[in-house]
Amino acid sequence: MTKIEQVIHYVDQQLKSRRLTPGMRLPSVRSLAKQLNFSVSTVVNAYERMLSMGLIESRAGSGFFVCAPLEPLILSHIEPIQDQNLDPLKISRQLLEASSFLIKAGCGWLPDDWMPHEALRKAIRDTSKDSVFELMNYSSPLGLSSLRELLARRLHTKDINVTPEQILLTDSGSYSIDLICRFLLKPGDTVLLDDPCYFNFRALLKVHQVKVISVRYTPDGPDIEAFKQAIIEHHPRLYITNSGIHNPTGATLSQSKAHQLVSLIEHANMVVVEDDIFSDFETSASPRLSALDGLKNSIYIGSFSKTLSASLRCGYIVTKSEWIDYLIDLKVATSFSHNNFSAHVLYKILTHGGYRKHIEQLKIRLADAMIISIHRLEKIRIQPWIRPKAGIFLWCELPTDINIQKLMSYCTEKGVILALGNSFGEAHTFQNFLRFNIAQCMHPDFFNILEDAMQYASMNRPLNSL
Amino acid sequence: MTKIEQVIHYVDQQLKSRRLTPGMRLPSVRSLAKQLNFSVSTVVNAYERMLSMGLIESRAGSGFFVCAPLEPLILSHIEPIQDQNLDPLKISRQLLEASSFLIKAGCGWLPDDWMPHEALRKAIRDTSKDSVFELMNYSSPLGLSSLRELLARRLHTKDINVTPEQILLTDSGSYSIDLICRFLLKPGDTVLLDDPCYFNFRALLKVHQVKVISVRYTPDGPDIEAFKQAIIEHHPRLYITNSGIHNPTGATLSQSKAHQLVSLIEHANMVVVEDDIFSDFETSASPRLSALDGLKNSIYIGSFSKTLSASLRCGYIVTKSEWIDYLIDLKVATSFSHNNFSAHVLYKILTHGGYRKHIEQLKIRLADAMIISIHRLEKIRIQPWIRPKAGIFLWCELPTDINIQKLMSYCTEKGVILALGNSFGEAHTFQNFLRFNIAQCMHPDFFNILEDAMQYASMNRPLNSL
């Protein structure tokens, strides 16, 4: 690329990422030359080239302006990610596209046969007999009242005291968070995320074109000093987290951190979104920010994708009464309604005695899988960051002699999909980390394949070892 | 309100509608005084009051800046609507909240018992026997391939020639349009809408904070001269329409208008979103913009809410190959997946012989309802704007002696919900119009109630007539 082409490329990147949009003024020739460390004449030539390409126009006395049409919102252009393996959207799509034959050791959901399929089949059959009105009609704006009443009772047991009118059903947890981002954010706002955090939060925030500040996550919640500092420096508007069982670390928020966070959030006049979709896996109650602050500066999100079905989707938003009407308006405007049939099926499963039993058995099965996974991983020198109290995730560090690219490619070859640590974090902090799904790890071939992969990827292995 | 309070109220409105956001500079005292036609000292006093309230701050030499926190995105604050009866979101919510006992003569969907409930129940039961993988797992990003293959074949019959890989399943038609708005729009862009048009388009575009320009709709499509003029004056980026069966008018696009529109859209480098959710009601093929331009500058939207079920929702986007990947990314980032169960159920109904028969019978039933409705309405002096070729809508004009508020309140009292013309249009162009749903009008009591309401609301009625 010549220098002139480099300048054009730079402006093109600005257009693609929508930092420059139609009608906006380009930087002056002089300031761009200084910024890119090129001569003024190089930039002049580049601008002239772009003028003749019809990308920009010159207005006498006031400079150069964009006249190219607006670029569509292409997430991969917003800030191009060099390593495709770390692109959160590529990871999500790879996992969503994976056939049932692969070992999805890196995914965020249970194996199909761990899910309550008989209960689901029965609830579906029962719902097929519902009234024509329920089967055919749009839902009411808030959603099925009996399900919201049930959710309110379940929330009471977590000390989140709300009426059913404070619960808004939606099609999923992700959609719920998106709706809240629309409600509370403007492009350019700042949002705090845990580091590491669920990778799709980053993708979602790209859509909202906000600035993300990462706060280091410790084994009992975010680093409070770093959280304070981020508030002082960046005036964030929102903090999105999982406090019950944290994704990807499996950590649990401590009482003391929860208390400190609630105070900080209140003083900073910001809002926390508590994404609690793993809460049904919990074995002992951990604090919830929404319980502590009484939904004053917090919004609670739930869903059934992890424990009931990811195919019949249903999520919900719990918020203060003052905000419900505005959120309904946004929901009606952007998707009109939600899947009412799913809400009916889920209500039937949840009120059937079998569900509680299923969850109890699931917790025991997960506890066993946790012990086995830790044991098998430690044997091949993969070290859990913490021993989670519950849940499906194990966040692990690899020894330094492992070439992570080789590990990945060996596993991919053998039909095993891993989740690389870096995709959950900012920059390259988690280079040597992996998130394991302990339920998916129970696949009979998994640990043997991983053991071979570790040998193959070790830089210390003797030359004749393969 | 004192003059000072009026200034504060004005600034508060700017904050609520997010036209002023944190960190933005307020207009200078002098310019605001001029704009509101108040004295400079009034504005100075108002600014001082707001300073002490902590809403704004003063920076030496550079003016006053907003320091109030960002207002949430409250749609009803964006541009407050004086008459609640005309607020598109209030209308949608009223219809969604309406119980099955009301006569929803103004709604946009069929009565429950006109829907294929036996076929739906059977398809649900059949789907309950599907593999655990299908019942429990997230869908692939594009969605059920057999359904997309079927849709591609159906689209071929409309001369829209696409591969299944150009079809993206979503949870609804509304969600699909929202996703496209996210992809192609930025706040401040201009979008063309038909006047009148489906009221929820306006609500959706408020969320995207774009400028809406209305183009008069004629009995065979938009007024081409007005469309041209709007392009020249406003450089729109998008045009959203229903070309098959237009909502609310029931009109059909003519070949000649379709051809002219495609040329105009191509020259203006804009995109048309063709929302074709009523297409299964069509009795003879009318032109589709997406067929004419080969999806070059058009995107096609479909859904099954109107003909199969509004409870088990499923919609889809049809677009050129180059855009599919970007739309998948946006879908994954904002809602991760969609309801895969619904896609399976709908596929089973669509491939079952019963569906075609159901639609054929439905069309005959609708044709009858159209004749009856026109006859009954004309008898009470309510004049259809056109006689639609097909569909469920009849767009009608009331005689000038009718007090529309009285008509509404009488009907509401009797459990009949009407859709006022003004809610579909800009300003007060459609003061004397109503949109009727001819299927809902077949309720045995409807025309009698409406006849009484017309008498009650007529300003010519003799004083002793009630």
How is this structure best summarized?
Chain A has helices at residues 3-16, 29-36, 40-53, 75-78, 88-97, 117-127, 132-136, 145-156, 173-184, 199-207, 224-234, 255-267, 289-292, 321-335, 340-351, 353-379, 404-413, 446-457; strands at residues 56-59, 63-66, 167-170, 190-195, 211-218, 221-222, 238-241, 271-275, 298-303, 315-318, 383-384, 393-397, 419-420, 433-437. The first copy, chain A, has 466 residues and is of the alpha/beta class.
How would you characterize this protein structure?
The structure is a homodimer of 466-residue chains. With 466 residues, chain A is an alpha/beta fold. Chain A folds into three domains: 3-66, Winged helix-like DNA-binding domain superfamily/Winged helix DNA-binding domain (Arc Repressor Mutant, subunit A), CATH 1.10.10; 79-113 and 355-457, Aspartate Aminotransferase, domain 1, CATH 3.90.1150.10; 132-352, Aspartate Aminotransferase, domain 2 (3-Layer(aba) Sandwich). Helices cover 44% and strands 13% of the residues of chain A. The first copy, chain A, is built from 18 helices and 14 strands. Chain A has helices spanning 3-16, 29-36, 40-53, 75-78, 88-97, 117-127, 132-136, 145-156, 173-184, 199-207, 224-234, 255-267, 289-292, 321-335, 340-351, 353-379, 404-413, 446-457; strands spanning 56-59, 63-66, 167-170, 190-195, 211-218, 221-222, 238-241, 271-275, 298-303, 315-318, 383-384, 393-397, 419-420, 433-437. In chain A, the strands form three sheets. An eight-stranded mixed beta sheet of chain A has the order 3-10-9-8-7-4-5-6, with helices on both faces. A four-stranded antiparallel beta sheet of chain A has the order 11-12-14-13, covered by helices on one side. A two-stranded antiparallel ribbon of chain A has the order 1-2. In chain A, helix 12 (255-267) links the parallel strand 7 and strand 8. The longest helix of chain A is centred in the last third of the chain and has 27 residues, at 353-379. The two termini of chain A are 43 Å apart. Chains A and B meet through helix 5, helix 6, helix 7, helix 9 and helix 10 of A and helix 5, helix 6, helix 7, helix 9 and helix 10 of B. Chains A, B: This is Putative transcriptional regulator (GntR family). Chains A, B: It comes from Acinetobacter baylyi (strain ATCC 33305 / BD413 / ADP1). Chains A, B: Keywords: DNA-binding, Pyridoxal phosphate, Transcription, Transcription regulation. Chains A, B: GO terms for molecular function: DNA binding; DNA-binding transcription factor activity; pyridoxal phosphate binding.
